[in-house]
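Sanity check

After download, print the first record. It should look like this:
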Amino acid sequence: MDFNMKKLASDAGIFFTRAVQFTEEKFGQAEKTELDAHFENLLARADSTKNWTEKILRQTEVLLQPNPSARVEEFLYEKLDRKVPSRVTNGELLAQYMAEAASELGPTTPYGKTLLKVAEAEKQLGAAERDFIHTASVSFLTPLRNFLEGDWKTISKERRLLQNRRLDLDACKARLKKAKAAEAKATLWNDEVDKAEQELRVAQTEFDRQAEVTRLLLEGISSTHVNHLRCLHEFVKSQTTYYAQCYRHMLDLQKQLGSSQGTIFPGTFVGTTEPASPPLSSTSPTTAAATMPVVPSVASLAPPGEASLCLEEVAPPASGTRKARVLYDYEAADSSELALLADELITVYSLPGMDPDWLIGERGNKKGKVPVTYLELLS
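Expected structure tokens:
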């Protein structure tokens, strides 16, 4: 009982001494031990790392889960150390609605069939999104959280201890200074000076030891950067995989819809029977088509009601064509299109009234429509 009371009294005395030292420093009435420039740089870099890690973590959470209520729910489950329940993605929910609509409106009608095809694609997109969220959470978010909740808490704790050791050190320096000033007036203060000097030596030793511990932890931020760099690469890899899967699913969907569109809209002219994939070169489809020479003739267009061009009648002028390199293979959907092989060179030009996503391509004595985004136009 007495021991505990003495300890509480001692702790209260230390806290009061630190508070007095801190207040006098703020008012410029006491000297303060300054850390060296290298140590200050380590502190600044650690603070910057912590602040940016928090911002990146929060925004990545928003990217993966835009719904704030869902994020709060996931946070509570995590704090309670319980498994987060599986949640249907927006794509999967849309797929469910489309499938139900097709069932009610007629799955054998053109609209119903298309709804079912799109529903299947949206379901695949939802599954890809779910995999991406899981992979990104494990490989990117979890390491960032571990740093903030583990390493950074340790660093903060040691920094607080260092601050306390510095306050103790400066308080000892102030007491020694007062003792020496009193000693100059009376010889009775010799014991007080010796005591103050002994306390100062102990405080200096504890401060130096704590400064070294804190310095080592701060220098470990470099290893944190290396770890976060590796996690960032994993995040980009998972995001790349996700978008590649989405692209493949949508490309397959467009091919399915394009192959059936001719039977649904038999009077359609050009540019809808095969999807135009995202451009792989720096030239956008619209810009590329706008710079293509146009054959000054409309007689070559198909008469109304026909689904294909009269390709045999197309005769481009010698000065009205350009060369293009094929970026990747393309399978012709019908006889009006030209099949392509990656890396081959073909001649291309446009016709008045054509869809800007398509051009006429020629290879030897063969010609047909080709999608612009499968090509790299050469000067």
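If your output differs, re-run the checksum step. Summary of this record's structure: Residues 262-308 have pLDDT under 50 and may be disordered.
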